[in-house]
Amino acid sequence: MQLFLDTTDVSVLKDLTATGLVDGVTTNPTLIAKSGRPMLEVIAEICSLVEGPVSAEVAATEVEGMLKEGAKLAAIAPNVVVKLPLTRAGLIATAEFAVQGIQTNVTLCFTAAQALLAAKAGATYISPFVGRLDDYGATGMDLIAEIRAIYDNYEFDTEILAASIRTPTHVTQAALAGADCATIPPTVFLDLFKHPLTEKGLDQFMKDWAQTGQSIL
Ligand code: E4P
User: Fold this and answer.
1) How far, in Å, from the CA of 185 to the mean position of ligand 1?
2) Residue 83 catalytic?
């Protein structure tokens, strides 16, 4: 399973890519606004730090604008993935980018039927928003399983990118449900490393080791 970071915070990104466990990055207009930086500049910097896919979202809502903005974003670096909303215009633009060989991430997916349309349009990634569905009173993770079944039934190549991840449990559940990737906020990524019994166990091992008076080196 590929793990992406959902962030525009370059210093956090530098720190976490050092783990060797970050396969890509996703951004959205909210995260760009949070960065307080020009979008083209921040996407270029992220692409210089990460070899894997970096999603950059269009702001236009009509096909022509999406195609122009997407072309500009894709020109920033070869690993840019153009992110488009799951609307009729977004899927028309997705299909055109597929013809041009430009990678796409179709975002704001909340139903399996939407995901089916995105795959038929030739999306590289589909982003079902698990956490926002949970907030809405649904079980977001069910959507990942439904999309997995549909994509497997028809051998669609579109990768399932579990998004709006809120907890380490979401990551586990997405992996069990067959998501290809998950995009994770940095705080949740850091939590993936942790368990109280890991900390307690290590503490005891270090105390016991100290009592031996030995040194490995
Ligand atoms: C994914 O592409 C989105 O940027 C992100 O996962 C949305 O997460 P949120 O619901 O926490 O804003």
Assistant:
1) 8
2) yes
